[in-house]
Amino acid sequence: MPDTLINQTSNESQLFEALFQNASLGILVIDQDGKIKLANNFLLLLFGYSHVSEIIGEKVEVLIPARFHKHHAHDREKYVKKPEPRPMGLGMDLFGKKKSGEEFPVEISLSSYKNGKVYGIAFISDITRRKEIEESVFRQQKELEEINATIERFNLELASKVSFRTEQLQATLKELEKSKDELPKTLSKEKVVVDMKGCLVTIASVGFRSRRR
Description:
Number of strands: 6
Helix content: 55-70%
């Protein structure tokens, strides 16, 4: 092999290694049997491993909570049969498992390449912070919904009270209007009574004077 070609190949390998190891997301390469073949520094940091030798040759399930192992193995076999670039777990909550056993939410995109065998490439991001923000927003939305419901309930109660008070006021106004109509009649009757009393007093007075004579 010419030296120029060897140097070019060496430079490309170094460039690939630099890109692979300095990427700001976890990169994992597994074979069609699910064994880990490559892992970059960022992935080791995400999962709490000190050296790549701790996971090379292990099944990829070592990075996944045990409750998902069976389902993941089934999905992996399906992917090997029909590999294609795609985001993994759309609409699902995915979790990784650190060396310590701690779980954390992840986002995964898949790709693949063939070199005699099918190799899967997973690009993994820790989305803990995003989940915290989403949960905070969700809680705020729920609190806002509860506040709006309380305000709506208060408005309904207030509208009901206003309606009741309005009906009472209308009834009072009707009574006052009715009293207004009856007032002249009442006054007229009282005037007749007063006049009659006056007449009686006058008659009694005249009779009293006549007796004294």
